[in-house]
Design a protein that fits this description.
Helix content is about 75%, strand content about 5%. The chain is mainly alpha-helical. It has a domain of about 90 residues. A hairpin with a 5-residue loop joins β1 and β2. α4 runs antiparallel to α5.
Length: about 150
């Protein structure tokens, strides 16, 4: 980069990138620096949003794993119903955080979890697995700053 006293610097870019910048400049009627600044800010916003969404995917899967492990341990009489209910309560909190913070519908899982707390079977677990997969899809494909 080179620059002078004005505070502006020059950057050497490959021709295809310069052509894209010039095309966007012409389409939007903006100077080159604004086209580049907008692209960088958009990229940063997408990265931040993706990191946030991946955090919730991990939190969702971890919470669901804990619920399933505790249910399995309950079947072996190694944990109490109270401990299982505590894990389900924590998982519900995660679901509500996703709904409140990312505007992705999760409330429909609450009755399924309540039913699971009373007695687990493969069908109930499979149904919840399917719903969680749909929530993860929504987390990963939703528009930046948008609602699903």
């Amino acid at each position: 980069m080179s620059g002078g006293r004005s505070g502006w610097l020059r950057v050497n870019l490959p021709a295809p990138i310069t052509q894209t910048i010039d095309r966007l400049k012409k389409e939007r009627g903006e100077p080159r620096w604004r086209v580049i600044a907008r692209a960088l800010l958009t990229y940063a916003a997408i990265q931040d949003d993706l990191d946030r969404r991946l955090y919730y995917v991990n939190k969702l899967l971890t919470g669901w794993t804990y619920v399933k492990v505790y249910i399995s341990l309950r079947g072996q009489k190694r944990v109490t119903d109270e401990e299982v209910n505590h894990q389900i309560k924590r998982f519900k909190k995660t679901l509500m955080q996703i709904q409140d913070r990312l505007h992705i519908r999760t409330i429909h899982l609450i009755p399924l979890l309540d039913s699971l707390a009373k007695g687990a079977n493969g069908r109930k677990i499979a149904e919840i697995n399917d719903e969680i997969r749909e929530i993860i899809k929504a987390l990963l494909v939703a528009e930046v700053g948008g609602e699903s």
